[in-house]
Amino acid sequence: MKVFLTGATGMLGTSCNALFTSKGVEVKTLNREEIWNLADLSFDPDLKSGQAFIHTAANTNVEQCELEPDACYRDNYLLTEGLARVCAMIKVPMIFISSTGVYGESHNEPYREYSQANPTTHHHRSKLLGEQAVLSASQENIVIRTGWLFGGNFANPKNFVARRLEDASKAAANGVPLFSNSEQRGCPTYTLDVATRLFMLITGGHRGLFNVVNEGGASRLDYVRAIVASAGLSIPVMASPADTFKRQAKVSSNEMAANWRAAQLGFSSMPHWKQRLNEYILENIK
Fold first, then answer.
1. Residue 273, C-beta contacts closer than 8 angstroms, at least 6 positions apart
2. Could you say which of 105, 128, 212, 222 is the most buried, measured as most Cβ atoms within 10 Å of its Cβ?
3. At how many degrees (to 10) do helices 273-285 and 160-174 cross?
4. For 4-18, what is the mean pLDDT?
5. Tell me: domain 2-150+189-215+252-270, CATH 3.40.190.120, correct?
6. Residue ranges of the domains in the chain?
7. Does the predicted TM-score (pTM) go above 0.90?
8. Residue 117: which residues within 8 A CB-CB, separation 6 or more?
């Protein structure tokens, strides 16, 4: 089996590369220049030999997307549309990684795949447009909605867990508490578990839209407190309202989701986020 992978140096891409390789899959990675050339129909004929094209690369700077929407839609929508067109032409199934943030603010419970999407930011609108392009290009394609990802190398600047541990160390040195958003909720999700579920979907011949998140919901406050506790730190983490953080992006206060479709198809539940977070942190700080 051979798959092509974009965003291989990102958190999820790193886990996909490692997991698929461990399963004996040949993984061929593409850099940013190569995927833009591919979207412009300039591509290596070897792509036709792939069993899947996994697109994890994205513009993930939610705040910057509000300031530069054209760049956001170019990266997350137009590029994705071009890749979907090429994959359909060469008959290689495409997997697109989207976000549970596309659901918006319609209710307070975890969203199912049948919940209406009503994104509240440019980032999430661009991801929804990307989803639509992928699903309309071929019935063989898969869209994954996930969020609040943790995993990969602690040195990655976008590693939320590692950066919060740095914040905790600085706060402890200065004798002050940490503050975290007590209002926004989501499902912290381990990238290796997403990669594992993705492998199962591809090899099982599944298609269409799937939520892929670890079990259990949390506020940002709960999440940061769990990060600090798993690292064995005693620094207090205090609740702070969402408007304290002065964000450009009006991110939904509820990004929780349930793996409803996978459950209907007989998939077992994914592990609880607290268990996986604790394992991930202990593995990286030992």
1. 187, 188, 189, 190, 214, 215, 216, 218
2. 212
3. 70
4. 96
5. no
6. 2-150+189-215+252-270, 160-184+218-251+280-285
7. yes
8. 102, 103, 104, 128
